[in-house]
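Lecture 7 notes: from sequence to structure.
We start with the chain below.
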Amino acid sequence: MRNLLRRIVGQTGDLEHDEGDETCIYAVGDIHGHADLLSEICARIDADIRKFRPARPIQVILGDYIDRGKQSIETIALLLCYKIKYPENFFLLRGNHE
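Predicted structure tokens for the same chain:
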């Protein structure tokens, strides 16, 4: 996982927080077709970003976007909108349901 985060963040050093380091990573997983919950989570992340203003906020969505919920299409559409809006800061990883 550390190697994956290093590639996403573009760091080669330690991933521990350093004085002056302003990269903030938000990880979300197992959405399973619940677009309403995804929307709420993203709103909370956006509020956190507005409050703390990290220089480089990174959002990583860990897969399993579809399957159990009734809003699979809406979930994928919302994720793609975020990827289009934040292409350098929003990453989608594939889970076993994709």
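Points to note: Residues 35-52 form the longest helix (18 residues). The mean pLDDT is 83.
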